[in-house]
Amino acid sequence: MSRRTTLALSGAAVAALAVAGASLSWTIAAPRAAAFAERDLARRYGLGLAVAGPATLTLLPAPRLTFSGVRLRRGGHDLVASEGLQVQLGLAGLLAGRADITGLVLERARIALPSGASDDWAEPAARLAARVAAGRGRHLRRLVLVDATLTGRDPRTGHIETVTGLNLVANWPRPAAGLDLSAAFTWRDVPATLTLSGLRPRELAAGAESPVVAALTWNGAGAAGSGAPVAGSAEIEGSLAWVKDTSRETSKNVSAEASPRETETAGPRLSGQSRFATSALPGTLAWLGIAPGPAALAGPVSLDGRFLARPGGVEWPEIRVRVGGSQLEGAGAAALVRGRLSLTGTLAAERLDLSGLMPDVAPGAAWSRAPLALDGLTSGDLDLRLSAASARLGPVEAQDVAAGLLVRDGAVEATLGRATVQGGTVKGRAALAALPAGLDARLQGSVDRVDLGGLFADLGWPRWILGRAQGSVALDGAGSSLADLVGRLAGRAAATVEGGEILGLNFADLVQRPEAAAAALRRGGRTHFERARVSLTVSDGVAEIGQGQLRGTALTASLGGRIFLAERRLGAEARIEPGPDGRAGGSFAIEGPWLRPSLRPLAARTLPPTALPAAASAYAP
């Protein structure tokens, strides 16, 4: 072996030993190593570093110091307490004898987020923002959190909130490049993941807009003990800016016309395209600490559109919303004030299905005695205006629908501006207001030219009357349950049916054979009429029938009696007037359940003879 070869092999061996040695971790004096790293942390961010355990130095593949039992402090308070800390150093600075920290890795750290008036994070954040905006010096290129715990106070409620199991990786390779971040964590017993890319901290710190793409997903069973399903995702793609408080500047020149930006308060402003979807909106809102309010009626919900978010509120100039099988388009806004969600919107749909809002009640079932309350529905505010080419509410189909829903603290009001139902027009208004025990309810409505046969068929009721109906209703009542409320109803109602017929009953045959009245409704038959009219006066849940008349080409009938709303029972009397051709008349009792009443003939009433005074004999017929 030549001398040159021997020297080359010896040099390679020495180099290999040097590389191997540089790759090993060397235990060093912890106080001196901590002081070395602390100088850079204090200079850049105003943070102190305290180390309780040993320290090691590793040179390859990148210089780094590793500590155990670490605390990052500011103003005498611990901001971060970590079982392990790895400080990644720039090689050039290390050769020059100074610490240029380029990355931090924290293991099982407990991080106290800013809360209250004594915000020890304010100074480090301000220094970081100033350095980033100015582009001075080296920046932190990488931050890693392993199984970290974040604790802070919710500014809305003041309650302590905790994020556990946080695994985060943030990379910012160059000052002019974008920041990428990915994180997985658990909050309120729900696992979630967050990704962010494209964010440019330098532009953001300088007050300019920065592009941003972010996505958040969550999937769990909700907070412990709630049992509410929580699953969904949210995505945004747009621009982010940090707006300074300009309200003070605007007040100095009140005569100047202020732009929207001039009146914005300090905080982030985010705009762009957004997408949101959840399989259970009430559960997701409850997980976020927002009272669902009217959203408690919704199930799967998704929305996407152009948005603008400022502190305290979000606006959607263009939005598409899918609720169940219905898709709507329009505009909307949301605001959160002291934990109370406020929604406004104007939405339109080709087809709208509101069947999920209808209670599942059998036609013959008794009125519910469950307590009535609006607490679950009025914990948020809603001002919603809807229009639809066609809509379904339970079994009823409607066209050309314009409606509104207004929810305020302790009150709900639903309006139907118009709707076409079975060829006729329907309008109405229903209002509910909370009472100390129960609800106050008011109902007003009108119908015009509605086909009764088609409507009864949609509702699944017996089609016992046909014709075009018009009418009005105005009712009010109060009660602690639906049964109690119906038992206290008061108001008026009236209806008129033109050119119709009564199915299952022939009045002419009934008069000729009154003894067959009990089976008349089961035998079938028809009674044609030109006009039928009835008016009701309701008091304490009992409707008194007044002006009940039916006129046809061959007969005239009148109706009187009562409808007992609470019992869903009829107690009425129908009188068929004698015909001009000498046909006899008769009276019949209509009794029993209002959907399946029975007929019973009444004995003819004989009026006692009345003697006329002699002076009146000239006027006697």
Mean pLDDT: 82
Q: Give the percentage of residues in beta strands.
A: over 45%
How many individual β-strands?
30
Low-pLDDT windows of residues? 5-23, 248-262, 606-621
Q: Quick one: overall form?
A: elongated
Fraction of residues in H or I helices: 10-25%
What is the radius of gyration? Answer: 39 Å
- Sheet having the most strands: 30 strands, mixed
Q: Whole-Å distance between the termini?
A: 156 Å
Overall structural class, as computed from helix and strand content, comes to: alpha+beta
Q: What is the number of helical segments per DSSP (H or I, 4+ residues)?
A: 11
Protein name: AsmA domain-containing protein
GO cellular component, one term: plasma membrane
Pfam family, one: AsmA
InterPro entries: AsmA, AsmA-related, TAT_signal
Description:
Residues 247-274 are annotated as: Disordered. This is AsmA domain-containing protein. This protein is of the alpha+beta class. Among the domains are: 23-177, no CATH class; 489-602. Helices cover 16% and strands 52% of the residues. The chain contains 11 helices and 30 strands. The protein has a 30-stranded mixed sheet that branches. Strand 19 and strand 20 (411-421) form a beta hairpin. The longest helix has 21 residues, at 3-23. It is elongated and about 125 Å long. Residues 5-23, 248-262 and 606-621 have low confidence and may be disordered.
